[in-house]
Each structure stands twice: as C-alpha cells, then as structure tokens.
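It is worth pausing here to work through a concrete case rather than discussing structure prediction in the abstract. The textbook approach is simple: state the sequence, then state the predicted structure, then interpret. We follow exactly that order.
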Amino acid sequence: MAASETPIAKIERLLRARDPAGALQVANDFLEKSPSSFLAMIGRCRANLHLRNYVDAEIDIERALQLSPKDDHANLLRANMDNRLGRIDPAINRLRPIAQGRGPHAIEAAINLAEMYFYTGRRSDMIEMVKVGGLWTSDPRALIVRARVRVLDDFDGGIADMIAIMRSSQPIPLRRVSGFEAVGLLDKKGRYREAFDLAREAHATTGGPCELDEWLVPLREQLSLLASKGRGWITPRVEPVQGVAMVVAMPRSGTTLLEQMLDRHPSIGGIGEFDGLDTLTSRLQSVPSWPRLPAALPTKLYADAQRHYLDGATQIRKAGATWIFDKSLLSWRALPEIAATLPGTVCIHIDRDPRDMATSQFLSYFNPVSYSWTQRFDLIRQMIEMERKIVPIALETLGFSYESFIYEDLIENPQLFAGRCLARMGLEMDERVLTPEQNKRGAFTLSHAQVRQPINRSSIGRWKNYEWAFDSSWDKLVEQHHARRTITPAND
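Step two, the predicted structure:
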C-alpha cells in the first residue's frame, strides 16, 4: 500500500499546482493540530503571499523565524517581504549570506540580490557579485545580470548579449526584460532607429495578441453609467477612509516622480504600485451585478474589501506617516470601485504629453497580457483617448476630492504643484519634496533610474526622436493637452 501524503507534502504539491487557496486550507487545518510546525508555517506564508494576504503572511514569517531564526528559506521569504516594504538594507543583509552559501535557496537569494542591486543603483555590488560568481551563475536569469554588468564597460557587447537573450529559447519573461532593457539603453545613446526597431521586434516575439475591445468595452460601459446615473450611481455604504491618496494616471505619466517627491514628506508614505487595488476590484467585479447595480452588493463585501486594502497598505507605509500614497496604475480605470469601497480617497490626476507618454510606453517593458495595448501606437492612442474622456467625468461625478495637473507643468514649477497636492491632503509644504533624488526608498518601477536624478526637463519632448511614429490622428489629443497647460516655458 502506498504511503499516504503528509500535510506538508500536500501543501507543497498544491503550491506547485498553483492552488494557493487549497494550500492555505491544508496549512490552517494542520496548524490547528500542530501550531508549532515550522514547515506548515512556511507553507501558509507562501500561500498567503500568492493570495496577496500580505498582513497574514507577515505574521506567519515572523512566527516561523521565531521557531527557526537561521533557516535560509524563512530568511529568503522575510527578505523578499522586506523588499516589498521598501526595507532595502535589511533585505540585502538577509540575502547575502544565503546567496553566498550552498544551500537549496542560494540561487534564488542571489538572483533576488542582483535585482535589488540593479534597481537601487548599487553598481559596485553588482560588479563584485558577477566577478565572484557562484552557484547562481547556472541560472538562466544570470544571463541578464552579466549583460547588465558588461554594458557598463562594453556597451555594444552588453547590448549584443541582451539582444541574444531576447532572440534565444529562454523563458519569455527573461527574453522580454532583456529586449526592453536593450531598447532603453539604445534610446539613451541616441540610437533611436535601432531602439524603435528592437522594441517592435520585442513586442512581436515576446508579446501576444491584443483585442482592444476587451479594454474599451468595460470603459465605455463605465462612461455610459456615469452619464446616465450621475451622482446617484454610487452611494458608499462604508465609512470614509482617512489618509489615503492615489495617483490617477496612465503608465509613464510621471507617477513615480510624483510619488518619490511626496514620499519625502514626513507625513506621507508612498507604497508604490501596491496590488491591493487589483484585489479590491477583483472582489467587486466577481459579482455579476457590478457595476450596474452597486446597491445589490452586500455591505459586508465593501467593508471587507476596504479592510483588506487598508491592512495591506498600512503595512507598507513608512513608520510615522499618516498618509498612504498609492501609485497603482489601475486607479484611472477603477474609480467606481474606489468610490464605493474607499470613499474619502484623495485623487491626484496627472497627464503628460500623449506623444511622450506613448513613446515611453512603446519602448518600455510592460506585462504583455496586462498591458497588451502598449505594442502599437494606434492602440496606445485609443487608450489615451479613453482615459482623457473618462477620468475628468468620473472624478467629478463620483464626488472625489482631487487635484489635476500636467506633468510638464509639475516639472516647470514643482513647488507650486507639490504644494497643491499637499494642501489637498491638509498638509503643510515641506521643502524636502523638491529633492526626490534624495529619497532612500527604492523605486522598483520602469523609472527607477530617472528618479535618482534631480527634477529636470530631459523627458519632455522625447517623442521628437520618434517623430515618424506619429500621424495626424494624434493632433486632437496634442491640441487638447496643450490647452490644459498653465505654464508655457520660453524654450518650448
């Protein structure tokens, strides 16, 4: 007779089968009987992480470390959670000894460590890591780490390595990252035609099809509901939240810069592209009557969604801050969900020249499923057109307290527009917000390198390097954008 499966083995099997809910149930059942089981605690932590139950995962990992403080797996999980919370130095300090060892988690720890070095600009550490080598160099992801280091001294050689990875048979995520990193480097060197052609190839070979109606149909429905039902469409049935602000903008609109600025204020804690809003919207959208009949949803659903969001966001917010600043790129499409579940949220709406934004989106790495429309300029234009129709109406109709301004104006007068954001949040101006490059919080976004520089105009007018990509279909968007500007610099 075959031996029966142990609970720990079952947890592991369910996690491998991408059934974290099942793994969580098994872990909970086993821990009721054996509350000091280290392996069950680790399994439950991993299941909670997959399910985005970050507060519960935090409790689990702390208990696991109390049971076995030197365990590599527990410390790897703790380091990755520290990274998510913006605690970069503690995360690195935990990862180094694991990465330098020969245990079963050494490779994963080393790859994660290399990513942290890259995104926080620690070039010397990354160079030393490649020089020393180790078990991690056998992992396919080490290819891009070595290419990143090579490009520092041998630009063409490093670019060639990245392109070779993109054209290889390696997993698609690795190929896509490598391709778009090469695109960004070519762009910075002024090799615009090469960058453009490589971006087009990367989209074609590592992306997928885009059915734009999958994106536009729900947005058109939202626009119709805003117009037909007006302010009576959504009446919140939960208490207003206090101290929550969100960026409302499309990707590559200056959201990371704004977050890094406001996070310098001692009362504001930036939480990056927190995925709590994704979870919140998924909860509501799983109910057939949403968004047509918000009153048909039980109050408990709204209350639970609000609590889950606030628990996770508060966990990430820096110590001492009274405000959460969320730069989720979903918010412009989820204003009804925010209004129903997080009433009282302050919205900061920022727009950028549509051509600059389109250029940056096309040349940048985005998830090929979640942002499939970034693969072609005509698709990008249609998404921008929808965003600029829906956001102003939604902000007004749904009764948000908000500020709205243009990225180019923010660059020209950061004190004015940062001051407006702070005033909207009931906070006094703090000069530290004008030096975002001094922010020690990691920016794990596409703009991680730019925000380590003082505020500057270098990204304004970037589209001119790719002028051939724009036809007359962009004229109306551009005209509308310029009409909204309040500051016209002399050299524009």
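Step three, interpretation. Strands lie at 244-248, 268-270, 323-326, 346-351, 401-406. The chain has a mean pLDDT of 93.
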